[in-house]
Amino acid sequence: PAEAPILSVENIEVVYNDTIQVLRGLSLHVPRGQVVALLGSNGAGKSTTLKAISGLLGLENGAVTAGRILFDGAPTGAEAPHALVRRGLFHVMEGRRVFEDLTVEENLTAATFALSGRGVKAASFDLVYEYFPRLHERRRGRAGYLSGGEQQMLAIGRALVASPKLILLDEPSLGLSPILVEEIFAIIARINRQMGVSMVLVEQNAAVAFAIAHTGYIMETGKVQIDGPVERLARDEDVREFYLGTG
Ligand code: ATP
């Protein structure tokens, strides 16, 4: 039998404040080692999907009211975000939330606090610096003084410290110059290929997402509209018109 996916989201419904239903029977699967791109118009529910997976939804008064989520073969249920981090699931939120008053290295150290009990390899910082040499150059500098691109690198670097099996990336290209987007996506692709880390990538920039993803899902108002291998999606007329601007 084929190996079980690292992540299965099965028919979930999500409601905020007990009233606003945002996800309406959403399903998606991430095969081990793959990058899955999640696209869709503003407000379709992409960020909500990531928060449902990582458990951060609970911090925003949201709840999964139906369906289930399996990570690495076990239900995520009501597990707190830090417990899921220990299991190898890391969410890099939109807007690169780093601790601006801490140095780069202190930010990485802070990322290890959630891991107590699992043990942090000293080598994990070296790994981050290997992928992001710029962070090494600035390791003693305040994170608040980093450029937007470098802060995004640090946000991803904090995920690497956790020896993740699955990283959820929410719009890593947001607000970055095309050159930096290219640089960061090349590194994301290397992390996937070399370390075998699976990823869910929420992106507005479909062309950039398709360049590194294996599979794509397109959401509309809380559920999946189309999904399939990116090669096939890239030939779909609607996808070309609405997401790639080449229709
Ligand atoms: P965007 O790209 O604009 O972030 P998205 O596809 O990621 O869009 P979400 O951020 O998941 O969409 O939002 C989906 C819907 O849920 C929107 O209508 C939004 O207003 C609503 N929503 C998001 N967060 C909350 C919250 N904390 N409380 C109430 N409603 C929310």
UniProtKB/TrEMBL annotation:
Alphabetized Pfam families for the sequence: ABC_tran
Xref: SMART domains: AAA
Top-level taxonomy: Bacteria, Pseudomonadati, Pseudomonadota, Alphaproteobacteria, Hyphomicrobiales
GO biological process: L-amino acid transport
Molecular functions per Gene Ontology: ATP binding; ATP hydrolysis activity; branched-chain amino acid transmembrane transporter activity
Domain ABC transporter stretches: 7-246
PROSITE patterns cross-referenced by the UniProt entry: ABC_TRANSPORTER_1 (PS00211), ABC_TRANSPORTER_2 (PS50893)
Gene3D superfamilies xref list: P-loop containing nucleotide triphosphate hydrolases
Name of the protein in question: ABC transporter ATP-binding protein
